[in-house]
Each structure stands twice: as structure tokens, then as C-alpha cells.
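Co-fold these.
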Amino acid sequence: MTLSRAQIEAAAPDQAALKAASGLLKPAKWSGLGRSEDGHLVWGECQGSGASPYRVVADLSDAGSKCSCPSRKFPCKHGLALMWMAVDGAELALQETPAWVTEWVGRRRKSGSAPSVVAPSDGRSLAEALAEAPPPPPDPAAELRKAAAAAKRAGETNAAITAATEEFDRWAADQLRAGLTTFVAEAADRCRRIAARMVDGKAGALASRLDELPARLLAIPGPERPDAALMELGKLALLCRAWRATPNDTELRREVATTENREELLANPSVLQCASAWEVVAEQVATRRDGLVSVATWLLNLRRDGPRFGLLLDFFPASAGRRTAAFASGDQFLATLAFYPARAPLRAVLAERGATLAQPVDWPVADEEDPLSPACERLHAAPWALETPLLLPEGRLAVDRSGAVWWRRVAHTLPLAGEPPPLAMGCILTNAVGLWTGGRLTLLAMQTDWGRLTHA
Amino acid sequence: MHELEGPLAAMRAAFFSGRPAQQAAPKEWGTFTEPPSELALAALAGQALEVLFRQHPASELTERPLLPRLGVPTVPDAARPLVRRVVANLKTDEQRRQLVWFLLARGYTLHPADWLPSAKDDWLPEAYAAWLDWARGEGGGAFAPTDPLTAENWELWLWRERRAALTALRRIEPAAARALIVEKGPGEPPDRRLQLLTILADGLTSEDSEGIVPFLKDRSPRVQRLARRLEARLAPAAELTDDDRELAEFFSLSGGIFGKPQLKAIALKTGAQRERRAALLAHVRFTALAGALRVSESALADAAARAGEDVQDLLREMLLESGSDRGLEVLRAWARTGRMRGAALAEVAVHLSAGERLGLAARAVQEEADPTFETALAALGPELGGLPLGPTHGAGLKAVFALLQELPDETPSARQFRQRPLLAGLFALGLLVEAPTAKALLERLVAAGLSPADPSLDPLRLNAALAPENSQ
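Predicted complex below.
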């Protein structure tokens, strides 16, 4: 290791980044800290404001680093903190280099050998970053004014969202009057216009769902699209109606407007926290029309208690470039998930990441009755729900005469969305996890007589 | 039939076409949607569609047969992440072949979840035949061959069994085997046509001439080439053409010492002459050239074996294309001299002994300053992973380390350009050498500046991880 504190100061983009990094120096903020045999590479996972932790790696030979956080600063506070801990002699276990670190090393363009002369740090200082700033003196009058302003803003926001949902109803009724066949043909333009109106009306989540509707329709066969449009417009109408009836419902606010942040969620004492062993079933990455990249990590609860699935959902600006995945499919670890309050809890954040399971744990036994009953139950609780993860019992894939692929178990058949991996057609699926969306099953992962298969 | 099926169908039709759906809705739904609203009806209809009605296949469903287990085990689970990374970084189909061969040489096949062949991967070694059959939608049937192989039951046999039956038939009833090959061969994929022709080559007689004819115009160059070689083995020189005579004029065959004729290439003066000679070399057959030079094919091959390197360069392709068994011997002799390269060497090397191939590869690594080790790979063909190479010697290794040392001083664009041969070289090394050498090379490359986590070292790491037990 050749890195010095002076080099970290020189590499930091500004003093604020160092200050922020100083808050991440406690090992408790990190999991999976490790270093390579030659001592040049260090890595770890740091919990940030997202649902999943950020993966951070640094090369101590030249102060290079990479982090999966969306920060535009380089190095970001996580990279700086990791290097800082390494330089200060933090306990970093000697480990086999993980695949995501190897991948970074392969992609990386080194700037040659490490500079022998350290650039001046222009006033950036680690010591100063560690110094505690005195808290501002309390001002009760200012606090009251702030609270009153916040209440006024909340009232205005609710009124705007209500107006937006009413505008959606009028628009959706217009689409029905014009005919859904026409709507499907012109969905891109029509949805973009109404989504913009929803953004103006502070109904951001509703806007996103409408913005993505044309892409979802395009992903299914043409003859099924009018039905899919009917189901989705109906769900959104129910959602709007429910919001107007109970605008203070946190789940409905999340579905229509905005999601509470991680701190707000964890501060809520009534939040369902589930400590269990989890397996990363799959990670779905999609670029949305609003320029954000959504990363959906599906976790399967390997124990009996608590929700069967957890969904970690993160968003990044597409302009931030390629991001290292937070997990690898098939990872099994102990963790506490904090579920967003909902009628059928699914979306969650990783409250605490524990150790990786030493021995692989089998998937739980799937219900052998109707494989779609969880989807029906979910729709019963939250009729606006878009998708339901399913744990399927033993079955096989089969094709009909048109070449369409179906999952089959005795009398139950589910049509598949997209092409399965070729091997899945030739093996017994002893278990499968899929996403039931709009009448089709997207396979995410399978346990087979050939081992585990991932498809996402 | 569900009671809602009729009303829902009418409502959907109304919603799709833009007509009011209220009249088609069940009466009870009116009480849920106060005041009556088309949007509320749409919400109810959507929910009913999703919960009550499910898609069913329009026709009978068929399952594909289960993927058969191969006779060779798949890569151990512990090495599979490494294999997946190597597979993900493969740059060419040739590299994929080399990886398959390397693993097989170490006693493993790829795991089908990491890579499964497609129907067109006809280059695959025999160990993968069952998967290739599966990918082509064959096998898994209940047919147990008790009757002899005939044109009528040809399709019912698994390819491996069909080939075994045909090979046996060729020995007992060569004419019957030939008739089957001629009738059914054209309908088979290229790799199988090649294998059928190889069966025909066993005990080849002049009666097989007509059987070879359809394969002379085969769509596959490999099949064509083998057919021409078989034809050359059988056929007396056909009637000479003007092209044959014209090509002969580019060579001189004169009496040499001890009465052995010396074959020389006539010195050319213009580019046009060189172009014309190249064009003639591309299509004139070796036997025809022999005829035009008024010697037997075997005598011309003997003369070619003694000829200079310029003549070797000119006649190599022709011998590969249309040389008989004697021509192949000449090619083998040329290969042993170490002057042959690339695809030509790869084609001839399969006719050399394992020891000869290993010797050629070792010499190439030792003497050629080629960081991509092309000649060594071509010489070894499918028998990879066994080169007993000293990790500190050889011009090839020096070239790799020289590239490694130069990289940090290059500009980013030049570095990217220079990285390509380095990556190809590290891949080749990873598949060429013995496991102990792979371990030694890993240490040396890390000491030379590569990060131990660098993915370009994955092939070497895989090699070391799959060490045969006796080399541990």
C-alpha cells in the first residue's frame, strides 16, 4: 500500500466531500470490507440513502476508486472514506477478490504509475473534516414558522394531487370514449402528454407509471394490448379514487406522488422489519423514459416468517453511466429488511446487512395449489398493484403449436413473457421464481436438475 | 363457462371500439359504480379479467426432451464462476472452441447453464454430441434400433447410433453403406456430411467414385476439400485442360542429383504473371498439375517434398485442397520443419502425432516473438493445456512481457490498441500450458505489474484451478 493521507486530501473534490466521508469512517456503516492479497485493492459495501448498499472499491496504489452511488463527485464520499479507513489501518480482512471488483479492474483505464509527487490539497484537510462543527442555537419561533410553512405546503400539494387525479379520470374516460384500439396505437403520444400534466400536478409516481405504460404494452403480443390497456387504466382509476378518499394513506401517497425516504421510513416505529435469510433472486435494470435507470433487486425470504419476497428499488440518472450491481444473483445473506407500509408489503430497504450464509440454504417449499393465488390475494388487497412475484412449485416449460412458451404443472399453465434460457426448456424446474405482470410470467430464477438458473 | 364471460366479452368489445359499455355490464355492477361511470366499469372489468379469466394454450403443449447428461463431467462448481467470466470475455468463436477443447483436455465439459451449444455448433467434439443432438431437436425418442439401418428408418436413429451402424455396415457391405451415404448425406448438416464422407474413406475403392461426386460440389468447403482429396486418391489423372498446362509452365521439373527431379518455380517478371499464377493455383488440382508436368502424382509430391520454401508456399494450399495421401505426407513433413502457420498448420497438425504437435508448439513459443501464440495454438489443435513450458523462457513470453511493460507509457488510445494482442496472448497462454506453469506465470505476471484481480488473468487462473490431480 502506497497511499498517504496527503494523497487522499489531494484527490478529494472538495472539503465537503471529505467532511461527508468523515461520517462514514465507522466500520458499522460498512459490510463486506476486504482487501486483496497484494494490499492494493480494498472494497466494501456502504449503506447510503438508497434501498441497496453501495459497492465501493479503491486501488491504493494510485488512489483510483469506484462506487455504485449516483454522486457526480469523484471520488465520492464513499470512495474517500474507504481509502481513509485503509490508510488509517482499519481492519480489512484478507479475502478472495469478488467478481465485481475484478470486473472493475478489467474495465478500468489506469493513468499509468501512481504520481510520485502529491498535488497540493488546496486547503482540503482530513483533520478539519473530522472537527465537529458546533450545533446552531435553538430558535423555537423559527421552528414554529417552519412547521406552519410545511403544513401549508402539504395542504397545497394534496390539493394539487387531487386535481391531478381528477384530470386523470377525465383523460382516461376520454380514452375509453375514443376506443382502446385507437389508444393502443397512439399510446406513446397520449401517455407522454398526460404524464407531463401529472408531473405539473405533483403526482410524480402516477406520471411515471403512465410514462412507462406504452413500453409495457409494446412488450406483449399485439392482440393482448387492448386488454392490458383496459386493466392498467382501470387500476389507475381505482388508485386515484382511493387517493381522493384517503389522501393521508402513506401507501397511496407513494403510489400516486412520492416515496418517503430511507430515514423517514426507518424512523417510523410501525414499519414492518423482517430479519431473515434472503437470497438475491434477480436484478432487473431498466432505463425509463424520464431518463432514470431503475434497479429492481428481488429478494426471496428463505425462512417461513415474514413476507415471502422483498423488492429493493433504486433509481439513478442514466447520465451517471454504468453502475456496478449491488448484488449478484444467487447471493444468500442475513439481513433485516424494512418494508414500506403497504396492504401487501413488498417494497423495502435493506435496514441491516448481515453475514453471507456459510452454507447454501434451499428455497422454501412452494404452495402446490393455484400458483396464481398470491397474485389474486395481492390484487384483492391492493387492486392497483402492477406485478406480483411468485414462487412456483415443480414444473416444466412447454411450447404450444405457435411456438409460445408456457410454464406447466399438471392442470396449471402460465404463459411466459419473453424467451426463457435454452437450458430451461430441457430441464425440470424444481422451483421457479417469476414475476406475474398483466397476465404473463417473467421468469427470474429457477432451481433445476442442472442447478440454479438466472434469467433477468 | 363463467357467468361473466358473456357480459365481459361484450364490455371489452365496447371499450375497444369506443362504444358505451354500460348496457353490456351485469346489472349488479351498477350498484358498485354510483354515479354510473364508464371508467368505474372499466376498472371492474379489468379486475375481473385479471382475476377470473386466465389464458389457456390454444393447442396441445409439448415438452422438449430433458437435456441428456454427458459422459464427461461438467466443470466443478467451485470453478464455474471463473469459467463464466472467461466465457463472458471471449472475443471470437475460435476462442470459444479453444476453451471447449482445453476443458475437455482437462476432463471437463462446460456446464449447460454457462454455455449451451446451438444447432449450428457443428465443430463441437464428440463429447458434446448428445447436447448437439438435443439442440437440433433430436434424440429422446423411444426408438430402440433393432432392425438394420435403412433409408426408411434413417431419421429414427440417434445420430451417434446411426453413425456407428453405418461404420459397421461399411465394413460388411460397403456398397450398401455407400448407397445410404449418397441418398441421405445431402440432408444432413455439414459436420455430419464430413463424418459420412470419412466413413466412406474407410476402405475406399474405385467403386466409390460415384459416391464422392455429389460431395465435390458440397456447400461446405471442408466437405468439398475432403471429397477432392478422396477423389485424388482414386482417380487417374483426368483429361488435362489448358489451365493445367498453363500452370505447369510456371514450374520447371528437371533432373537433379541421383536422378531425383528438382521442382522449381519459374521466376516471374510482372505482377500480372503473379496474379495469373495465383488464380490457376486456386483451382487446378494437384493430380492435374502432375499430369501437365508429365509425372505421376506421387512423383510430383516427392519432388515437392524436396523443393525450396518458395515452391512449398505455392503448393501448400493446392496440396491441402486436392492432394492425395502422398500429398498429405508431404504436408506433414513441411509442418514438422516448423515453417507452416495458421489455418494450414491447424489442418495438417491433426495428422501429426501428439508428440510432434507438442514439439511444434513448444518450438513456436520458444522461437517466435508472437505474443498471441497463434502457431502453438494451431499446432496443438484440441489438445490444449499440456504444454510443458518454462515460464521464464521463450521469445513468445518475452513478447508478452514486453507488451506489459510498454502499456503504462502509452497514450490511452494506443494502450487500447496494444492491449488486444496482450489479452489474446494471456488467453492463449492460459489454455496452452500445464497447470504448474500457469501458476508460475500468474506469479510472474503479477510481479510484472498486472493486478492479481485483473480479469485478463482469468484463463491462467482457470488453468491452475483445474489442475489434473497428478500435477498438484
